Give the backbone structure.
Amino acid sequence: MIGWDEILEGGLAPRATVMSWRGTRGGVAAAKLGHDVVMAPNPYTYFDYTYHTTPTEKVYSYDPAAKEFTAAMARHILGVQACMWTHIAVTDTAIDYQIYPRLLALAEVAWTPQRLRNWSDFRTRLTAHYGCLQRLDITYYDVNATGTKLGEWKASDLASGAPRQFEWDATPFLASSGKVEVQVRHDKVGSPTHLLFVALLEDGKEISHAFYPAPLGKSNDVAVVWLGRDQRQASARYAVRVTLQGSKEGGAAGSVWIMKPRGR
């Protein structure tokens, strides 16, 4: 039998294995009782969280056999587990983006003792992994990525509770065909904001769009969408249009960023 750490609350069955997700306490408690554990603590191993909440460096810093485990208890740690819930990231592209490169970091956490790990070295080595992911056509988050802010909105812009459209020129940032990553960032001040629609316009005509199936709020402070154009028209003007809606209590300020495309 294997179960999330809630099974500790009813008393463990003989030889039951515990997956410790509510932090590390469940794993520690189970190991003290002589039970095997899988360490999957929140937030280190929760890849459905945004990179602002659980950056790759945070994943890499996790030590499954930290000081709360004695040597005897640590022998009950079977390994670590990544958790990827798909209630927000619902497409293959979005799921891959959430997983990579955090899964690479967690793999090294599993196989390399804490004393031998070095974030700067790992970050440098990621370059080779990025090349492999590109060849496999896997979307990933670049820890060295830089972005440009297209524009922003104020909390007062959403005070009416009605949907509002915002549009910003993106022509200088779309030098080639293909997908472009757009981030809509919520600054966590004020009421939750609903991102209804993001679209890419070419000379005023919509050529690509994306929905985001969850409100922007404290647990989802950055929405990531990918907009594409099959063929870049040299003389065309491109714009990103974002449709937002505040709640009955109002809205929150935020900004829209376009990320530098990854090389291939």
About this structure: Residues 147-259 form a domain with the Jelly Rolls fold (CATH 2.60.120). The first strand starts at residue 2 and ends at 4.
